[in-house]
Amino acid sequence: MTKDYLTSGQQLTIGVLGLGHVGLPTALGFASLGWSVVGADDDQDKVKCLGRGEMPFYEPGLEELLRDQLALGRFRLSSDVPEVVQEADVIFVCVGTPQHEDGSADVSQLERVAITIARHLNRYKLIVEKSTTPVRTASQLKRAIARYSDDDLDFDVAVNPEFLREGSAVFDFMNPDRIVLGVDSQRAKELLLRIYKPLIKHNGYQDSGTDGSTHSDSTEVNRHSGNSPSGSPIVLTDPNTAEIIKHASNSFLATKISFINLVSDMCEVSGADVREVASAMGMDPRISPHFLDAGVGFGGYCLPKDLRAFIFMGEERNVDMALLRAVSDVNDARVEKVISKIRQALWVLEDKTLAIWGLAFKPGTGDIREAPSIEIMGRLLAERCSLRVYDPEAMLEFKSSFSGSPERVVYCKSPEDACEGAHGVLLLTEWPQFREVDLAQVRDIMTLPVIVDGRNLLDPNEVRQLGFEYHCMGR
Ligand code: UGA
Q1: Which class does domain 244-332 fall in?
Q2: Which atom number of ligand 1 is nearest to the Cα of residue 430?
Q3: Range(s) for CATH 1.10.1040.10 in the chain?
Q4: What is the pLDDT of residue 418?
Q5: Is 346 helix (H, G, I), strand (E, B) or coil?
Q6: Contact, 25 vs 62, CB < 8 A?
Q7: What is the C-alpha radius of gyration for the chain, rounded to an integer number of angstroms?
Q8: pLDDT tens by residue, 190-200
Q9: CATH no. for 13-237
Q10: CATH 3.40.50.720 region(s) of the chain?
Q11: Which of 3, 280, 337, 386 has the lowest tally of Cβ within 10 angstroms?
């Protein structure tokens, strides 16, 4: 197949390998842009579940999209990765990059994918790395595919980091702040621009890419941007830079959170209000108001892991990563901060019962990976507290994986139920429904009217007027 076939108006088949929190929204996003997409995953139960139109995890709006795209025939599932490799023109690699003990990324799944691709290359393919990977992974992928492939078939490897967030994955895929394309060939660039055409902004893109120069190519983008008048800017760059953009972005977000948590501690000892400080800081467009919510710290599968991986990557190359180490340390210290607040509220923790509102690492998801709730609950159980827990989406997942003292953890059917007989409420995830709880009623079924709001979700005046002792973060 020639370049003309792939970059002309003919239909392309997109293969997506790895159907997790990034791969599935990506696959369904491309399908809803009109592309023919085939997805595969090593987990055959997941593939079967998706084939029935059922979601293996909670993500708002994704199940509807899955059912629509399956019905339209634009999204198909396969249990045969080699078949997907052969059928696809462009392969998005979205497999996991978990963590080794030392913080480095485990890229063994990527190598396995590279070998499978190499063994089943049957014509030119563009392989796109979407997983978050250490810098220079794309060049390793390229080397591995060339090394394990029998034929001398042409292929390209590009880097297209994903910035979508769990809980708003569908919206984020369709409305990216930027689309970063790390390419080192004209053909890869043209293919990716073609695939993303409906999402691209009218007025040009930054190109610091394939020829080393920086320029804006508004003519080409105008051709590629017909459907989306308010589309997204494209950043065309080289693969190494694209990989660093992803790590730098997540590390910067983590830095903002640890920074505001440090300011929150400062506010607490000074009688100031971190919410007002953050709001005024955020009015400066150089700072922006986003990611300045103080609380129990950042969790999830990305920020903590990617931060550690970036630190490892830098230190391995003798770059001083002290700043990011401090970001990580500040985050780790949030657990003790919360425990000391509960101690301040209840004095002795032994034999106290706490209602835990929220287990997920953030609202809008059932994901509990590296959720602050895990460590905080572990500490409370070590102090011999009993816990009555509730989360709208994460209960099953939490129950099946949390290893601490099951005899002292009760899984409750509502936030109100969790408060029955409790000496205090500890709010760990800012689910909007916790704001709707009738606190006057809840107060009457609690042993002590105490709330420790780890996310500053509730209104301090309102809660105190209802007779609660209210502790929050940095105000
Ligand atoms: C993060 C990034 O925001 C995405 O851009 C990126 O694509 C994704 O990682 C990834 O690499 O795949 P996500 O893990 O879904 O997305 O979660 P975030 O919304 O970033 O929240 C991370 C944590 O920070 C949560 O625990 C949240 O509660 C906490 N957080 C966030 C704060 O404590 N304060 C804030 O102001 C914002």
Answers
A1: mainly alpha
A2: 28
A3: 244-332
A4: 98
A5: helix
A6: yes
A7: 24
A8: 999 999 999 99
A9: 3.40.50.720
A10: 13-237, 334-471
A11: 280
Q: Is 361 in the pocket of ligand 1 (CB under 6 A)?
A: yes
Q: Is 299 in the pocket of ligand 1 (CB under 6 A)?
A: yes
Which residues are marked as active site? 302
278 lines ligand 1 (CB under 6 A): no
334-471 to CATH, choices 3.40.50.12780, 3.40.50.720, 2.50.20.10, 3.30.1330.30: 3.40.50.720
Q: Which residue has the tokens 């003798």?
A: 318
Indicate whether residue 163 lines ligand 1 (CB < 6 A): yes
CA of 291 to the centre of ligand 1 (A): 8
Confirm or reject: Cβ of 294 under 6 Å from ligand 1: no
Distance from Cα 303 to the centre of ligand 1, integer Å: 6
pLDDT (tens digit, 9 = 90+) per residue, 55-88?
999 999 999 999 999 999 999 999 999 999 999 9
Which residue CA neighbors atom 13 of ligand 1 most closely?
165
pLDDT confidence bin for 150, thresholds 50/70/90: confident
418 within 8 A of 390, measured Cβ to Cβ: yes
Taking the centre of ligand 1 as the mean of its atom positions, its distance from the CA of residue 298, in whole angstroms, is 7
Q: What is the pLDDT of residues 324-362, one digit of tens each?
A: 999 999 999 999 999 999 999 999 999 999 999 999 999
DSSP state of 417: H
330: buried, middle or exposed (CB in 10 Å: 19+, 13-18, 0-12)? buried
CA distance 325 to 200: 36
Q: Strand (E) positions, 317-471? A: 353-357, 386-390, 409-411, 424-427, 450-453, 469-471
